Amino acid sequence: MSNIILAETAGFCFGVNRAVEMVYDLLNKGEKVCTLGPIIHNPQLVEELNSKGVRIVESPEEVLQDEVLVIRSHGVPRAVFDQAETLGAKIADATCPFVSKIHKIVAEAGENGRTVLIAGDRDHKEVVGIIGHSKGKCFVFADETELESFVINGEIESNEPISVVSQTTFNNDMWNNCQKTLKKVYTNTKIFDTICNATAKRQQESKLLSQQCDAMIVIGGRHSSNTKKLSEVCSVNCLNTHLIETADELKCEWFSDASSIGVVAGASTPAGIIKEVLKTMSDALTPEKEEQKVNYDEMTFEEALEASLSSLNTDQKVKGYVLAVGPTELQVDIGRKQAGFVAQSEFSSDPNVKLTDAVKVGDILDLVIMKTNDQEGTVMLSKRRFDAIAGWDKVVAASESGEALEGTVSEIIKGGLTVYYTGVRIFIPASQATASRSDNIEDLKGKTVNFKVIKIERGRRAIGSIRAVLSQLRKESENKLWETIAVGDKFNGTVKSLTGYGAFVDLGGVDGMVHISELSWQRIKNPSEIVSVGDKIEVYVKSLDAEKRKISLGYKKADENPWEVFKNTYSAGSVVNVKVVSMTAYGAFARIIPGVDGLIHISQIADRRIDKPQDELSIGQEVNVQITEIDLDKKRVSLSIRALLDTQTSEETAEETKEETAEVKAEATTEENSAE
To answer: Can you list the positions of beta strands (E) in 246-294?
Structure first.
């Protein structure tokens, strides 16, 4: 039989998994979702999401008022965000963090007057998005030849300041060649290695695997850039390389004569598709067992008699009366002339069970006949197998009724975990093992879990789902909570996920959202500045939409309102030390306390006329000011440096007058003394 080797990093990468998880989380919250283009380059997953109501749109203008627009992991140009915000569309940004990093690099390069070079496919959506964040000259190249042509054609000077990035899925070997060309042709370059670590690792694994195997199967969408790159890498070393999207495309002749077959998968290939391909290949490579037929014509009378008796007794269910209990086996009476025996290994699926503790003489056990030896007058029996048969019947019944079963997680395996239920092994895929795909399934090992049987396959193979039970329990909790929840109720919740516009908090079966403006009294750019996923926080209900089942939550505490602190601490005329935080044409804003900024008007910065605030002040500078006016209703505070300068001048003038008067008096006294 051929050896099938699966690459270690096959399947979803971090960025793709994050994007898909974001869509599923939004759907679970009852949101209507649309994606800007397919969420990933995998038609099967896109079709599944479409069946759940997820629409694909080509621009923010197509987004409906009640929909959330998900920006896929490839990212988009800055202009798309601006357009969506202008139209008031709700956005969930699933751009891969590795791609966002490239956006920042090219934007800063443009601001600093540097030319941007991008290694990649100029028509790929990721590259289009990167170009859309560049603020200056920008060029795309596919290989080292095209890279050199920019200088030859006079488009770029050899000493021109250049910043170079690559598409996250760019060919690693090609990138290394391009870097050599860059260092040879251009003299003023900054090279940023932005190929995703997972991509580089996949390509390296594919390269090594294709050098060892007689055939290579690459699984992934044909429009997926990283999948096509894997196919190219494998084809260099193994001519017998084939790219497929699903198991239906497999052809036995590709690997029928191969002693070893390598399997790799793109970053946007779901685990379920990989598993189906492996199973199909395994079934195709495993020779079917021929049914053993007994040819009685070629046997003696005695041989034929023994064969017929064995055939009649095998797998027959019987009752056994326990006659004796030993440390390694039981002796039982099954109502026949043969002596019945149950070995310890056939008593229970639990290897730690002690027969002397579990059984006593006189017990009646349900057993299955495994082997009959009429010559020795013995029958080998199994309670473990009877339990498995009975358990299997219950598993099949539960799959039809939808009843939840209870089992113990025995091991974590590639692609999921296994649960044992009365001796029956149930496979739970990783996607069905937890309430959220981001949860760690390793934590479940050895634990008792409730699950539902969602599929029965041939060969007595059952597929289960823990998530189905958790979803049902969550739904019940949700219904119960909605019966009693009211505005003003307080909850100790858990931060479940973060978006650009707020944080979703699990209240115990129901999710509510804390808008970014409700997380802090100060202005913040991202919810992650205040909370993190997994944090336990106290929130209160601000508003409810029972029809849409949406809960708006508040997190800011009234007694922490910086304006209340300011009102109780400061008044007009107070002198305070402040820090300059921003500048405008008409003055400078300075921080009095966190959350409260005051304006130093340009006319109040100095005791003379100045053209602009920057002539006297700089951001970060600390100065003493006087509070001249407070408008709590409009949240405005007026500050003045000049008022303090005027006071100082008045005090100095008064001091000078006092000194002059003293001098006059002294002179008069001197004159009087002289006259005397």
So the answer is: 260-265
